[in-house]
């Protein structure tokens, strides 16, 4: 997924080189299904309090479509990214879209009941600033995820991917262990739940 521009430049942060949602590999499909189930479960847990949802770093919009179709539909679901040129033509029509950087979201404080930001923080030069901004615009809950390192890279190596980069996916400039993401999240969130589908960490929290 895409992330946003760095705080002091207009250079876009690219997302992953592969579309994990479109993989035909049965193992990859099973892993992605586990990830989607974990994100959806935590999203549903937050849903009773949610009428408006903002997704930051929506990429192709496939996660947004999954959540809209597999959870109680909020009154508004707005999906944003620094660039919208990769949006899937199969994006659910109930989803609104807008170009915005995670570092400078054009919304007032506490504008959305839930903010979703999955597979984004690992692409950021300053993930702390990104988390601060998404927490600012969240009223009730923040849902985040990142790859679980170093397991993510080890799994890439096992399938002979990115060997010259020691398994690091292009575009990943931060590498979060489970404890590392939990520690970062706790700087701006009271953590309500964590799921650990291999090889990801997914956290649901409440803005402090």
Describe this structure in words.
- It is built from 5 helices and 7 strands.
- With 208 residues, it is of the alpha/beta class.
- The chain has one domain (20-207): Rossmann fold (3-Layer(aba) Sandwich).
- Strand 4 (112-118), helix 3 and strand 5 form a beta-alpha-beta unit.
- Helix 1 (26-46) packs across helix 2.
- The longest helix is centred in the first third of the chain and has 21 residues, at 26-46.
- Residues 1-16 have low confidence and may be disordered.
- One of its GO terms (molecular function) is demethylrebeccamycin--D-glucose O-methyltransferase activity.
- Residues 54-140 form the Methyltransferase type domain.
- Keywords: Methyltransferase, Transferase.
- Pfam families: Methyltransf_11.
Q: What would a concise description of this structure say?
A:
The chain has 208 residues and is α/β, with parallel strands linked by helices.
